[in-house]
Amino acid sequence: MGGGYPGGGYGGRRMGSQGETDEERQKMQELLRPSQGLTLAEAKKDAEVDLFDDQERKRAFFTDGRKLQKSKDLNYQEIAAHWEGSRLVTDEKNPRGGKMSRTYELSYDGTQLYETLHMTVGRNNTPLVIRYAYDQAPGSGASASAAAPASARPAPAPAPKQ
Are strands 76-84 and 58-62 parallel, antiparallel or unpaired? Predict the structure, then answer.
Protein backbone atom coordinates (compact mmCIF):
# COMPACT_ATOMS: atom_id res chain seq x y z
CA MET A 1 0.00 0.00 0.00
CA GLY A 2 1.48 3.32 -1.10
CA GLY A 3 1.07 6.60 0.59
CA GLY A 4 1.57 10.27 -0.07
CA TYR A 5 2.54 10.00 -3.74
CA PRO A 6 0.05 9.31 -6.54
CA GLY A 7 0.47 5.76 -7.74
CA GLY A 8 2.07 4.57 -4.52
CA GLY A 9 5.06 5.31 -2.33
CA TYR A 10 8.68 4.38 -2.74
CA GLY A 11 10.01 1.44 -0.80
CA GLY A 12 13.46 1.44 0.73
CA ARG A 13 16.19 4.04 0.30
CA ARG A 14 16.15 6.16 -2.85
CA MET A 15 19.38 7.11 -4.53
CA GLY A 16 19.82 10.67 -5.76
CA SER A 17 20.32 11.67 -9.35
CA GLN A 18 22.46 9.23 -11.32
CA GLY A 19 22.82 6.97 -8.26
CA GLU A 20 24.87 9.38 -6.17
CA THR A 21 25.81 8.52 -2.61
CA ASP A 22 25.03 10.63 0.45
CA GLU A 23 28.69 11.71 0.53
CA GLU A 24 28.60 12.86 -3.12
CA ARG A 25 25.34 14.72 -2.48
CA GLN A 26 26.87 16.44 0.57
CA LYS A 27 29.97 17.46 -1.42
CA MET A 28 27.77 18.83 -4.21
CA GLN A 29 25.72 20.85 -1.71
CA GLU A 30 28.92 22.29 -0.20
CA LEU A 31 30.12 23.16 -3.69
CA LEU A 32 26.93 25.04 -4.54
CA ARG A 33 26.55 26.76 -1.17
CA PRO A 34 28.60 29.99 -1.11
CA SER A 35 30.99 30.81 1.69
CA GLN A 36 30.10 33.69 3.96
CA GLY A 37 33.62 35.07 3.58
CA LEU A 38 36.81 34.45 1.64
CA THR A 39 40.44 35.44 2.03
CA LEU A 40 42.59 35.22 -1.08
CA ALA A 41 46.38 35.40 -0.75
CA GLU A 42 49.44 34.65 -2.85
CA ALA A 43 51.52 31.98 -1.12
CA LYS A 44 54.41 31.53 -3.59
CA LYS A 45 55.04 34.13 -6.26
CA ASP A 46 53.64 33.06 -9.64
CA ALA A 47 53.06 29.47 -8.42
CA GLU A 48 50.44 29.26 -5.67
CA VAL A 49 47.38 31.24 -4.59
CA ASP A 50 45.60 30.24 -1.39
CA LEU A 51 41.93 30.75 -0.69
CA PHE A 52 40.53 30.43 2.84
CA ASP A 53 36.79 30.35 3.50
CA ASP A 54 34.65 30.99 6.56
CA GLN A 55 34.73 27.26 7.45
CA GLU A 56 38.55 27.44 7.78
CA ARG A 57 39.00 25.36 4.65
CA LYS A 58 42.02 26.04 2.48
CA ARG A 59 42.15 25.64 -1.29
CA ALA A 60 45.66 25.87 -2.69
CA PHE A 61 45.60 26.82 -6.38
CA PHE A 62 48.82 25.84 -8.16
CA THR A 63 49.59 27.60 -11.42
CA ASP A 64 52.99 26.03 -12.14
CA GLY A 65 51.77 22.64 -13.44
CA ARG A 66 53.14 20.61 -10.53
CA LYS A 67 51.82 17.16 -9.55
CA LEU A 68 49.04 17.69 -7.02
CA GLN A 69 48.49 15.72 -3.83
CA LYS A 70 45.10 13.98 -3.51
CA SER A 71 43.72 14.96 -0.13
CA LYS A 72 41.00 13.12 1.77
CA ASP A 73 40.87 16.13 4.11
CA LEU A 74 38.00 18.41 3.05
CA ASN A 75 39.73 21.26 4.90
CA TYR A 76 42.71 21.23 2.49
CA GLN A 77 42.52 20.76 -1.27
CA GLU A 78 45.17 21.25 -3.96
CA ILE A 79 43.70 22.43 -7.25
CA ALA A 80 45.27 22.97 -10.69
CA ALA A 81 44.79 26.50 -12.01
CA HIS A 82 46.10 28.92 -14.59
CA TRP A 83 45.97 32.63 -15.28
CA GLU A 84 43.88 34.11 -18.08
CA GLY A 85 44.95 37.73 -17.87
CA SER A 86 43.94 38.87 -14.38
CA ARG A 87 41.55 35.93 -13.85
CA LEU A 88 42.52 32.83 -11.89
CA VAL A 89 40.86 29.81 -13.57
CA THR A 90 40.75 26.33 -12.03
CA ASP A 91 40.64 22.93 -13.72
CA GLU A 92 38.67 20.56 -11.48
CA LYS A 93 36.22 17.68 -11.35
CA ASN A 94 32.92 18.06 -9.57
CA PRO A 95 31.88 15.53 -6.88
CA ARG A 96 30.16 13.44 -9.55
CA GLY A 97 33.33 13.25 -11.68
CA GLY A 98 32.33 15.75 -14.37
CA LYS A 99 34.42 18.67 -15.60
CA MET A 100 34.21 21.85 -13.60
CA SER A 101 36.07 25.14 -13.41
CA ARG A 102 35.95 28.22 -11.26
CA THR A 103 37.05 31.69 -12.20
CA TYR A 104 38.14 34.27 -9.62
CA GLU A 105 38.45 37.91 -10.58
CA LEU A 106 38.21 41.34 -9.02
CA SER A 107 35.64 43.90 -10.07
CA TYR A 108 36.94 46.85 -12.09
CA ASP A 109 37.12 49.01 -8.93
CA GLY A 110 38.63 46.27 -6.75
CA THR A 111 35.83 46.29 -4.18
CA GLN A 112 34.33 42.89 -5.06
CA LEU A 113 35.69 39.44 -5.76
CA TYR A 114 33.69 37.43 -8.30
CA GLU A 115 33.67 33.64 -8.17
CA THR A 116 32.10 32.02 -11.24
CA LEU A 117 31.43 28.28 -11.18
CA HIS A 118 31.14 26.47 -14.54
CA MET A 119 30.03 22.85 -14.71
CA THR A 120 27.73 20.46 -16.53
CA VAL A 121 24.90 18.59 -14.84
CA GLY A 122 22.52 15.78 -15.64
CA ARG A 123 22.51 13.14 -18.32
CA ASN A 124 22.46 15.75 -21.08
CA ASN A 125 25.49 17.60 -19.66
CA THR A 126 23.50 20.80 -19.36
CA PRO A 127 25.81 23.78 -18.71
CA LEU A 128 25.42 25.37 -15.28
CA VAL A 129 27.00 28.72 -14.45
CA ILE A 130 26.75 30.24 -10.97
CA ARG A 131 28.32 33.56 -10.05
CA TYR A 132 28.95 34.77 -6.53
CA ALA A 133 30.01 38.32 -5.65
CA TYR A 134 31.88 38.95 -2.42
CA ASP A 135 32.15 42.49 -1.04
CA GLN A 136 35.51 43.71 0.21
CA ALA A 137 35.73 43.59 3.99
CA PRO A 138 35.80 47.01 5.68
CA GLY A 139 39.35 48.12 6.38
CA SER A 140 41.06 45.69 3.99
CA GLY A 141 43.51 47.28 1.63
CA ALA A 142 43.05 45.11 -1.44
CA SER A 143 43.53 46.90 -4.72
CA ALA A 144 42.29 46.22 -8.23
CA SER A 145 45.62 44.53 -9.04
CA ALA A 146 45.10 41.94 -6.30
CA ALA A 147 43.86 39.38 -8.83
CA ALA A 148 47.08 39.53 -10.86
CA PRO A 149 49.47 36.66 -10.12
CA ALA A 150 52.47 38.83 -9.27
CA SER A 151 50.67 41.03 -6.77
CA ALA A 152 47.92 38.99 -5.13
CA ARG A 153 47.31 40.24 -1.62
CA PRO A 154 44.89 39.04 1.05
CA ALA A 155 41.40 40.15 0.06
CA PRO A 156 38.97 39.12 2.78
CA ALA A 157 35.35 39.38 1.77
CA PRO A 158 32.23 38.85 3.88
CA ALA A 159 28.80 37.68 2.73
CA PRO A 160 28.20 36.81 -0.91
CA LYS A 161 25.52 38.35 -3.10
CA GLN A 162 23.70 36.05 -5.50
Answer: parallel
